[in-house]
Every structure is written in C-alpha cells, then in structure tokens.
Write a structure and sequence with these properties.
The protein has three helices and no strands. It is mostly helical and 83 residues long. It has two domains: 1-46; 48-83. This is UPF0154 protein L248_0888. Pfam families: UPF0154 (PF03672).
Length: 83
C-alpha cells in the first residue's frame, strides 16, 4: 500500500469519528439544556392544581364545591389540549 492512501483512509475515519462525537456531544448538551430550561419554567410558572383553584375561589368569595372544581379543571385541560 502506498503511504498516501493510508493517510486518506485515516483522515476519513477521523472525520467520521469527529462527526459522531459531535452529534453525541450535541445531544447530551441539548438534553441538559432542555432539562434546565424546563426546571426554570416550572419553577416560575407552576401548573395549577385543585388546591390552588380552591384557594383562588375562596379568595374571590365563592364556595368551592367539588363539582365546580372538577368543571374548572376539565375546562383548563381542554384549553391546554387546544394549544
């Protein structure tokens, strides 16, 4: 084998290896970046649960019945599904 052909083959393998490592590294960094973003998002904008709705209704002077709470939760889920 000629010396020139060996170095071309090694260069191709090196390029393939670097591309694979780049893709894996990007996936790992993307995963942790998205995870951090979602943690911050949920810390700043927590999802509303039934207890929060109950306290909001009590603050507005309404008596929170289970039927009304279930209707409001179903309405909120339906609004989220539309998005």
């Amino acid at each position: 084998m000629e010396k020139g052909k060996v170095s071309i083959t090694m260069a191709i393998w090196l390029a393939v290896l670097l591309i694979i490592l780049g893709v894996i590294g990007g996936a790992v960094l993307g995963f942790f970046g998205a995870r951090r973003y979602m943690k911050n998002y949920f810390r700043d904008n927590p999802p509303i649960n039934e207890d929060m709705l109950r306290s909001m209704m009590m603050q507005m002077g309404q008596k929170p019945s289970e039927k009304k709470l279930n209707q409001m939760m179903a309405s909120m889920r339906q609004q989220e599904a539309k998005k």
